[in-house]
Design brief:
The structure is a homotetramer. By secondary structure, chain A is α+β, with helices and mostly antiparallel strands. In chain A, about 30% of the residues lie in helices and about 10% in strands. In chain A, strand 5 and strand 6 form a beta hairpin. Chain A is globular.
Chain lengths: ~425, ~425, ~425, ~425
């Protein structure tokens, strides 16, 4: 859930809504009718389900309670497209979403039209309740989250097809990554969390104090080349580099490279949304899980940043990088020469050393919408920043993403950190190995 | 595998081939593009996969080895659409067939066209090898088997959708089932199995001698009404009625009625390919597994027939009943008044008391096509007759169908049997309870 | 269940009872208190449980119903030590039997004393119901079955201990196996099954007619040397040799030799009840499952016998071989030179090609004791003969043992068979490869 | 791992060692030989294994590397009794520890004697390396941890036996719990973690600064009565009270009360080490997992304390309460009237809201002993205090215990906390419902 801030629901809300809604459908344009039902595992959902569920969200939380005359498109969809809101009712089993060939693609689009029209009418009414604006703003952010999932879920489902489906051909060029450097921060008693001046989710609040020892952050996320050196040094065969659960995961999964990497025949390739491609080693490495990010940092003699360290460094930085808006659907090589760490936002999410837990004084919103974030505060680790599948407008320094430590189908990478000695003049720290 | 009988590959072979191939596609006409990828569990396959795999069969076993100039549509399909032929090579994992959104529906149809054209050219050549005729005949039978699976798999996948998709509306009338009677057979040393005069699968051979004690068969399969009496008498709560594995299945599955029966709200309904419908109690009960058929027979104080008993009774009877050719996709009420048991063929397969094992002297064919039947002779029970989803031309008295004892997504029912006292004048046996 | 034959309960019944009861305890003498609770998997039971359950059998089926004054040792044991009799009541979960450290070893022995004393008193009464004699006879056979299981279960549980516990040192000598030969049978319409003249289990009845084509049986079970040739020829890597379920088992289990074989360091060893030992290749190979026995026969170009063929050959042969009575607990090399097949009884059970199904006209006994055999007639294959862990007095030609096809912790081996051409003068068949 | 502090290894180290070693064996005195092998699930270990593994620890980390003349008792034990130290080598599979009937109880005791004697000799040498003292001190703490596990594992394994084994009869009296009150703390920038002046584990270091908002802690852990009110209010049926993973656990486990509670027949009972007993409702509730503790706090409108809050409150408090030293093996009713929160130590561990993660600047020790704590810093929650199965001498304010959130076989309870409004005069907070 989110912090309701009626004031921030500025005039272009309806336009933002319709643009966002249209973008979801544009993302499906390269897909065939057959692709729209793909679901490779319980964690991912079919594209069609994303189109339906985001519509369900608006119908359930805005139209049904706040638009008296509204007639639901199909009463049975309340159950079919409820993701996890126990406060609304029972849910169609998540692992079976691919079995919902009906309603079909066209029917879901008709449902979207009906809901969009009703929302437009509601928002156009001059006297409408400001709470509706706040809920629409939330629904927009919710749909942006599902746009990211639509892309990452699709990549995952496609990856099971040995024909290596192409969602969009690659059109960018290779270039070298900038040199690895450290950015240093003196820390101290700092404030972290959202201050409530703009839209945020409830899990970013309340703003609170936290003590930070002096630390440094890497100037950019680790590259494929840097991570490949870890692989070549036996990283996936050495238990001492891994958390115990991580080592169990390595043994059970048989993993020996990031997800989608294909190392078995000739030159290293990976599956991307542009199909099977030679790995571009200067890019940020993506599709790591927490265990891999943590093991890589340990191999470097370094560590992951905490979320408070990350946020302290990112606060005030512009939200720049590769986003879904660029329609590349793949992380780009970091830009050169900046005073702040590059790619804090966009390209790849960055695993932190922080468990996803409530901030001191956290209270979820009341009602079913309160199930949005709070009930998941267990067993997950925080990621910060954003990825090439995130909307630029969706991100901010206080944003908390979270996934279970074994999952890696998101565009998730690693930015290294280290603790500085408070008593000594700080200096350049060790640089991780870079392969030629 | 089959017995090759080049003589029986009569002139209309090409016509039969093209009619059969076209029928597979006609079966998909009521389906949406989205439906074509549905796979609810590893045992069932998507409709599109059936269209592709049957094409693979012709391309792999006929065109590639016997048509020198033939260019495969896509070399990668050899792996993608191989079902279980280790002699051909590795297979795409069966539980993941729903993930093959590519090749899409139109591409699979184009493949079918290419293969059909090549087969037509091959068969039209005046000097073609008679072995090709035999293989085409086998391919036709193979495709008929997959037509039945396409229908039963589709019903199963649809049944997970609470919108209860309609494949085709119901248009038949209710009528009472004929009275239950016994048909008696004196048995003795009889011959069973195919005699090789017409097409048969290898598992029906060799014809061999078997001793039968005097026995009787029910005049028709058990009806929904008769099976409902078993349910109402606590059939699913009484371990003494079940085989040990069957009782384990009841407890683990929570089953308390045939598959697709919906007993929880008001009048009893079931899911059919015409959607959710009130149960018609005079029809043959379908979607039983072996454990249920066996428990029902035990509750009646009777037993299932052996496959030899069944075949001895069916030999020489006309292949009549409800088949896929009628396009009802649902068992029909038995016809009244005949001298032989009704519905031996069509409507519902009949579980027998016989394990699926090789006949004495059985030898599978050489090569990969020898994997068709023989390697499955373990852990399955034989069903005889045919169902409303079988092709009439595909069935015969010696036909052996087989499934694992816990599976029930086929149109599988039960015909009762009893042993007659050889020393006494036989008389009408006990009639199972019929509810009003 | 069994056929009750009060006449055969001859005078020495009490002596037989007490000898059998004492032998169960003697089998535990080499064991420590700690060993008595071992249970390596759900299929096996701890030695202490076997001592308790066999006592439960007498208390439940004889003393409670037939000895009015009898006071159960502990009412709670009815639940604790019920194996699978739903007619008696619920059962303590089988996989947890190792968790019953109480009642301890001494308490179980006290229970045995109480039950033995009560049985002795009951049998000593001159007017006792002959039904009691029949039930005691059944209880003796039941206890003999559990003595065999005690030994095979113990071997299995011990095998998980890398210290390779020694139950009893080996004291026999090596010698060569006799040459492989065929014994031929003309078959015809024969009778099979127990004739009821002596004790038998219900599953051996009724005696009935069956047709047999001419066939031959191997002169002895296959040896370790013969089976090793299969291994060396890639037997466990070639899918064409295996049933489909068998090949799945090979891949999932990673099996590449019989159970207990240790091929990884130097000379081939196996775990035996004498500890880790060099394999003696002239012995009958043991600890095969049905899939392995079947694959071996296919590799030989031969087949397994049916149970009717086996019984026809064994009928009238003396029950000779290596039994538990010899206290070797390991199969012995076949004796040389006989007119009939050697080792039909004892040493290793012989997998047949027959599924475990009811004989025509089979009817289990009434009451809970009717659960003894009949309810397991699904998904298992018949073994014939007996093993080095069977009691000699327990075996006969009509005896039907049965296990699921993937299980191999019994002393189970393979005797080859072949069908003879009825039209030709029969001759020596092909001899399977023997390694030097 | 631990912080090595040679100075604190004061003269009585050898006496402490021998007392601790003897106490492990005393804990086994009420057990039968049969009990010594019990292992109900992979998380628990048999008593005999605990006796062996603690001995392995001394032999592996002290005697082998530091006592040149030492001959291992049995080289094969290095593998058998390695718990999880990959740096030492492979490990016998944890779920199978109950299968190690050999070495038996007496042999393990002989091993203990040999190791104790060798340690005594080593420590008695006037010139021995002070590192040895530090390692012996660590081994003592390690053995104390296993004494606690021995008791909790035993309780768990015994609980599967419906005879409800008695380890030791109950001899204490009932009395009312003191009234619930709040203890308030103003927080601020405080230091937390061990300061290294005495023995501690590595995971308690380094001492570091943390900011705390004003908060209050409950005057005692929640009682059975208080938790029972949660149950009676439908606590286990209301998803809104649970974390999402917690609710999944409720549904999958079917839990509706703390572990060992028996609510199905008549008056509420629980299984204790004194057998099946009526619940004493004034005691601290035990055997909750994190999900239950968290749901209970949410139902109260309160929360769990963080580990820093807990430690800040406990720092400087005496280590008093019910410990394993009292040999009650069950939590006692809280004492009345104190100025600080009662039962911070002993009786029940207290779940905190903190994930088990490294403190800022944490570095595990080098070598295999560095696997002691650090590699488990994932997916677990911190518990603070100690329980009725902990050694008093083992506990301190900075001690961090940790378990996965679904586990509840430890004596784990819940102490409530709340955040105070920094701007208002603090006052007594809401008191959770107490049943009469």
């Amino acid at each position: 859930m989110h912090q309701l801030d009626p004031q921030s629901a500025a005039p272009p809300l309806l336009a933002r809504l319709l643009t966002t809604r249209a973008f979801s459908e544009q993302l499906c344009e390269p897909l065939t009718a057959e692709d729209m039902g793909l679901q490779a595992c319980p964690e991912v959902s079919p594209p069609r389900w994303h189109l339906a569920h985001t519509t369900w969200f608006f119908e359930t939380f805005i139209l049904k309670p706040h638009q008296r005359a509204y007639r639901p498109f199909d009463e049975r969809f309340e159950y079919l497209f409820n993701s996890y809101y126990n406060g609304i009712g029972a849910q169609y089993p998540r692992p079976q979403r691919h079995l919902l060939s009906r309603p079909g693609n066209q029917e879901v689009l008709r449902w979207r039209r009906q809901v969009d029209d009703a929302l437009a009418e509601l928002l156009s009414h001059p006297d409408h309740d400001p709470l509706i604006d706040a809920l629409v703003a939330l629904g927009i952010e919710h749909e942006q989250q599902h746009q990211e999932l639509l892309i990452t879920d699709l990549k995952h489902s496609f990856s099971y097809n040995p024909l290596w489906p192409v969602y969009q051909p690659r059109d960018d060029d290779e270039r070298p990554a900038p040199e690895f450097r450290w950015h240093e921060y003196s820390g101290g008693l700092v404030e972290t969390g959202a201050d409530g001046a703009a839209f945020c989710f409830d899990n970013e609040t309340p703003r609170h104090r936290v003590w930070l020892d002096p630390y440094a952050l890497a100037s950019r996320p680790a590259t494929c080349a840097e991570f490949f050196a870890f692989i070549e040094d036996g990283g996936y065969q050495r238990p001492e580099l891994w958390l115990s659960d991580g080592w169990d995961w390595v043994r059970q999964s048989g993993a020996r490279a990031p997800l989608y990497w294909l190392l078995d025949d000739g030159a290293p390739h990976y599956y991307t949304l542009a199909g099977r491609q030679p790995i571009r080693f200067q890019e940020p490495v993506a599709h790591l899980n927490y265990f891999e990010a943590d093991a890589y940092a340990r191999w470097c003699g370094l560590r992951l940043p905490t979320e408070a360290e990350w946020e302290h460094a990112a606060a005030g930085q512009p939200v720049q990088g590769g986003f879904i808006d660029n329609r590349r659907y793949h992380p780009q090589v970091a830009p050169a020469g900046r005073d702040a760490p590059a790619q804090l936002f966009g390209d790849v999410w960055e695993w932190t050393a922080s468990a996803y837990l409530p901030y001191p004084g956290f209270a979820p919103a009341g009602g079913a919408v309160g199930e949005y974030n709070g009930k998941f505060m267990n067993g997950q680790m925080v990621l910060r920043g954003g990825s090439c599948a995130s909307s630029q407008a969706h991100l901010r320094a206080s944003y908390r993403n979270f996934f279970q430590p074994h999952l890696r189908w998101q565009f998730s990478g690693v930015r290294l950190a280290r603790t500085l000695d408070p008593n000594r003049e700080s200096s350049r720290g060790p640089t991780p190995t870079i392969i030629a």
